[in-house]
From TrEMBL:
It comes from the Bacteria. The lineage of its organism: Bacteria, Bacillati, Bacillota, Bacilli, Bacillales. Gene3D superfamilies: IHF-like DNA-binding proteins. Belongs to the bacterial histone-like protein family. The keyword Membrane does not apply. It comes from Paenibacillus chitinolyticus. The keyword DNA-binding applies. Keywords: DNA condensation, DNA-binding. One of its GO terms (biological process) is chromosome condensation. PROSITE patterns: HISTONE_LIKE. This is HU family DNA-binding protein. One of its GO terms (molecular function) is DNA binding. Pfam families: Bac_DNA_binding.
Length: 92
């Protein structure tokens, strides 16, 4: 399912216009992105938690030259599924 399909399904379920639902979806996603980008967690009870995760510094190599190199510590977004979400997936 892509964003357009999600918007259509939610709009149909709530008997609302696609345009209005798309605006709400965009706002929710932008709010999550900005909040997590600012270093805060976004926890949706029963669904999951969005957060920043740290990747430790490590040794790697350049695949074309096979030269060893140091990869710096980095940050990336992470998601942990909540109990209700996990159970819904398991039951299918």
């Amino acid at each position: 399912m892509n964003k357009e399909q999600l918007v259509k399904r939610v709009a149909k379920e709530l008997d609302m216009s696609n345009k209005h639902v798309e605006s709400v979806v965009d706002t929710v996603l932008e709010t999550i992105t900005v909040t997590v980008g600012d270093g805060e967690e976004v926890a949706l009870h029963g669904f999951g938690k969005f957060e920043i995760r740290s990747r430790a510094a490590r040794k790697g190599f350049n695949p074309s030259t096979r030269e060893e190199m140091q990869i710096d510590e980095s940050k990336c977004p992470g998601f942990t599924a909540g109990k209700n979400f996990k159970e819904a997936v398991k039951s299918k």
